[in-house]
Structures are given as structure tokens and as C-alpha cells.
Amino acid sequence: MSEHQSTYVPKTAFERWMDSRLPIIRFGADYMSLPTPKNLNYWYTFGAILTICLMTQIITGVVLAMHYVPNTELAFASVERIMRDVNGGWLIRYVHSNGASMFFIAVYIHMLRGLYYGSYKAPREMIWIVGCVIFFLLIATAFLGYVLPWGQMSFHGAVVITNLIGSIPVVGGPILTWLQGGPAIDNATLNRFFSLHYLLPFVIAGCVVLHLWALHHAGQNNPVGILIPKDRTAKDTVPFHPYYTVKDGFALILFLMMFAVFVFFLPNALGHADNYIPANPLVTPAHIVPEWYLLPFYAILRAVPDKFGGVVAMFGAIAVLFVLPWLDTSRVRSMRYRPTMRVFFYIFVVNAFILGLCGAKLPDEPVIGEFSTFILIDGDLNSYLWLGRLATLYYFAFFVVIMPLVGLRETPLPIPQSISEPVLSGPAAVPAGAAAQPETRG
């Protein structure tokens, strides 16, 4: 599929002139006619959804930047002015703030789909790695944006995270001073955060282009997880348009309906009430928490008693994703044919929700409450801190221990010879490793 020949033929004089100088029309036409596996399900529609989310965030962000004032004395008031005095400002702000949550919902589903179907395996390692870079930049952008309203949670969240950077030996202090613009969180810090928050979405957009380029070169994965031989391309694929443009469009409409419910009916459901209080360095909130989509990483940070160790664990939770293609030792891509690994994957998904819950709760808050004495759980162990530590242990064990060992010892189910044929016990089925060989290129 990566060697798809161009079938575009310019029909007008303008198209011929444009094609000889900047073949952007040819690029679009070739992408629409790209042979795509015909068995892609709705989990594969989140790539298009993420593209729309990124465009929405950039457009609404640019409009908000026209009215926002990056000054500690005026930032909170400027956000309130956007909400009250700017025509349609409330809508733009709610679309932007809830759009971040929608973005992360789609990102997490997109990454879990790639994990389940083995989309990170050869020859698609660079697609996954560039995607991890986008994910890291997205986390950084979301954190910087969370600070800009300059409410109580914004300010004190910035204090907590920047102090963690300062705990890094040798280089932590200079980086902290540069990031803050001085010895403490102040006006210079807000200016830096605003500049970076404005810049990074365009960097993400550039990385998305690389992501699509790598996808176009290596070819699209599919739920079966097998490579499509060149002599079966016509049988196992369909043109991207109209088959998947229609499918993506339908999924996008459903996603936008959910998005609209939050914007118009639950605009503050995913935020924190303390952020509607102006920042006050002298009053610390009872419980400082990040936005919901960063809670799992916050739980990992708190799971380690040492501050620097917590920073290493938090960044390690992201760094381990970059080496995932080399940690998975299985020759089979899709977990459809890996029943043992599929069970561990489902536990991993539940574990991610547990980490999010632990990040949202106070560390010493009891998990089971008053009934803990009836099930013989020690009082010190009956806390969200210890539950978060167990969940953190499984998070890393899944990638570093379970995935390599299960890949070596499991017995996968038979894999079909092509995506057009069902799994049979007869000639149509082949041994597990045979249909999952790395693609060879001439």
C-alpha cells in the first residue's frame, strides 16, 4: 500500500499548471484513492476525529488569544470579560476548554486501539513513536493552558509542577529559574506559559503531518493484524474515499454530538470549581489536582515517596511508550488472536481508570471506608496512596514484564491468510507466526 501509484490526471489548464509547480491537488487525490484495508472498524475513525479536534483547538485558541491578557493582575479578569462581554466569547471559551477533554478522550482511545491491534509493530514503529511525541506535546500544552485562567487551581498547580522540575539534580535549578522567569511564579511565568501554549499546537500540527507521512509510507494496519500481499491488494482493500470518508464522517457526527452536550449543557462538569476563584498565593486549596486527563500520571507521581523518584516515574510512564515496539516479543500483532495477552490488556484498561481515581482522591483517604475492619485490611494500607502504588506497579509491569514474557510463552490462535478469509481450522488458517512476518521491501 505504501507503493501506491498516482492515478490523478489533471483535467483543466489550472490543474495542469498547478500540478507542474505544486502538486498539492495530486497529493489530496492520491490520498483519497489510497488502498485501505476493507475491515477497519469504528475504532479506526479516531484519527480523523483527532484531526478535527486539533483544528478546533487551534482556531478557538487563536481567537481567545486576541482577548486574553497574560498578566497576573489582569488574566483572571480578561477570561471573565471573554465570557461576558465578547460576542460569542462564552461559546468559544467553552469549546476550547471542553475541547481539550474531548481531545484526550479521542487520544486515549486512539492509543489503546493501537495497543490492542499491535499498530506499533514493524514496519510501523515510526508511526507509533511520532504519535508518542504528539502525546507528550499534548500533555505539555494542556498543562500550560490550565495555568492561563490564573485561578486558584491554575496557580497552585503551576507551583507544584514547576517545583518538581526543580528537584532534578544539577540541571533542575537552572531550568526552573528559566521556566519561571525568576525565583517564583509571577508575571514572567505567565507570559512564558502563554507563549509556549500558543506555540506548541502548531508544533503538534507539524508532527501530525509527519505522523500521516509515516502512515502513508508504511501502510495502514488492520484489526486482523496481517500484512496485505501485493497480489491481494485489490481483494483486501478499498479506496479511502468514499468508503472511509463516509465512515469517518458518521463517527465524527456522533463525537460532535457528545462534544455539544458538554459545551451547551455541562460546560464545567470536567473542570474544577476552585479555578473560578482568583489566584491567591496566600491561600492553598485543600487538594491540588490537575485536569482529569492527567490524573493517572499524577497518581504515579504521588506513588513514589521520593520527590525526584516520583518525577522519574511520571516521565517514565510516558517514556516506556516510546520503546513499546521492542518490548513486545510476540510475532502476532492483533490481540484478537492472543487470548492471554487480551486478558492482561483489559486489566490494564481498568488499571488506568484506577490510577485516575487515585489521582483525584486525597492520598490518605480510605478506599473502603468504615467497612475496612470487616475485611481485615490494615488502616495504613486502606488508602488511595497504596492503591495508587499497586496500580503504578501494574502499569510498568504490563510493559516491562508481562508483554515480553507473554509474547514468548503464549500460544496464539490461528490467523487467516488474508483479511477476506475467516479463521478456519483447515487450509485457510496458518500458524500464528507465519502471517505476521515483517514486511519486505524492494
Automatic annotation (TrEMBL):
Highest rank taxon of the organism: Bacteria
CDD domains: cytochrome_b_C (cd00290), Cytochrome_b_N (cd00284)
Stretches assigned to the Cytochrome b/b6 N-terminal region profile domain: 14-224
One Pfam family it belongs to: Cytochrome_B
Keywords, comma-separated and alphabetical: Electron transport, Heme, Iron, Membrane, Metal-binding, Respiratory chain, Transmembrane, Transmembrane helix, Transport
Transmembrane intervals: 42-69, 90-111, 126-148, 155-176, 196-215, 250-270, 308-327, 343-363, 383-408
SUPFAM superfamilies membership: a domain/subunit of cytochrome bc1 complex (Ubiquinol-cytochrome c reductase), Transmembrane di-heme cytochromes
Domain Cytochrome b/b6 C-terminal region profile, chain residue ranges per copy: 230-417
Claim: RNA-binding is one of the keywords in the record: no
Manner of cofactor binding, per the entry note: Binds 2 heme groups non-covalently.
Subcellular location: Membrane
Membrane topology summary: Multi-pass membrane protein
Cofactor(s) the record lists: heme b
Subunit record text: The main subunits of complex b-c1 are: cytochrome b, cytochrome c1 and the Rieske protein.
Summary of the function given for this chain in its UniProt record: Component of the ubiquinol-cytochrome c reductase complex (complex III or cytochrome b-c1 complex), which is a respiratory chain that generates an electrochemical potential coupled to ATP synthesis.
Protein family per UniProt: Belongs to the cytochrome b family.
Protein's name according to its UniProt entry: Cytochrome b
Organism this protein belongs to: Brevundimonas balnearis
Lineage per the UniProt record: Bacteria, Pseudomonadati, Pseudomonadota, Alphaproteobacteria, Caulobacterales
